[in-house]
C-alpha cells in the first residue's frame, strides 16, 4: 500500500471521527431540547389545572398568591388573566421547542448520511487497495 493511499485513508478516518463528534453534539442538544419540552409540558399541565381550579371558584371567594414567604390576596379575574398569560407563553415556548427538535432531527439525519457515506468511501477505498495489493503480489 502506497504512502499516499495510507495518508488518504488516515485523512478519511480523521474526517469520520470529526463527523461522529458533530453527530454526538447534535444528539446531546436534541436530548436537552427534549428535556426542556417535557418540562414545559409539565408546566402547561400544572397551569391548566390551576386555571381549571380558578374557573370553579366563586366570584366572592378570596384568592391568595404566594409572594416569597407572604400570601397576598389577589382579584379572581387578575389571577385568571395571569394564569392564562402563562399558558399562552408556555404554548409559545412549546412551539419553539418543537421547531428546534425538528431542526435538530433533520440535522442529525444529514449528519448520519454524511457518516454513512464516509464509512462507505473508506470501505470502498480499502477494498480497492487490497485488490490492487493482491493483484500486484500475484505478478
From TrEMBL:
GO biological process: chaperone-mediated protein complex assembly; protein folding
Recorded superkingdom: Eukaryota
Subunit structure: Heterohexamer of two PFD-alpha type and four PFD-beta type subunits.
Full protein name: Probable prefoldin subunit 6
UniProt GO molecular function: protein-folding chaperone binding; unfolded protein binding
CDD domains named among the record's database cross-references: Prefoldin_6
Species for this entry: Galendromus occidentalis
Keyword Chaperone: yes
Gene3D superfamilies, A to Z: 1.10.287.370
Keywords for this protein: Chaperone, Coiled coil
Gene Ontology terms: cellular component: cytoplasm; prefoldin complex
Coiled-coil boundaries: 6-43
Family statement: Belongs to the prefoldin subunit beta family.
Amino acid at each position: 500500500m502506497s504512502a499516499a493511499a495510507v495518508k488518504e485513508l488516515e485523512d478519511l478516518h480523521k474526517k469520520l471521527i470529526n463527523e461522529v463528534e458533530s453527530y454526538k453534539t447534535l444528539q446531546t442538544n436534541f436530548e436537552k431540547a427534549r428535556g426542556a419540552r417535557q418540562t414545559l409540558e409539565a408546566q402547561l399541565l400544572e397551569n391548566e389545572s390551576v386555571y381549571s381550579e380558578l374557573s370553579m371558584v366563586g366570584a366572592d371567594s378570596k384568592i391568595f398568591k404566594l409572594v416569597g414567604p407572604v400570601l397576598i390576596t389577589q382579584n379572581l379575574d387578575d389571577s385568571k388573566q395571569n394564569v392564562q398569560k402563562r399558558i399562552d407563553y408556555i404554548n409559545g415556548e412549546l412551539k419553539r421547542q418543537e421547531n428546534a427538535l425538528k431542526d435538530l432531527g433533520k440535522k442529525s439525519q444529514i449528519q448520519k448520511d454524511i457518516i454513512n457515506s464516509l464509512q462507505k468511501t473508506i470501505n470502498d477505498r480499502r477494498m480497492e487497495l487490497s485488490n490492487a495489493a493482491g493483484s500486484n503480489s500475484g505478478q
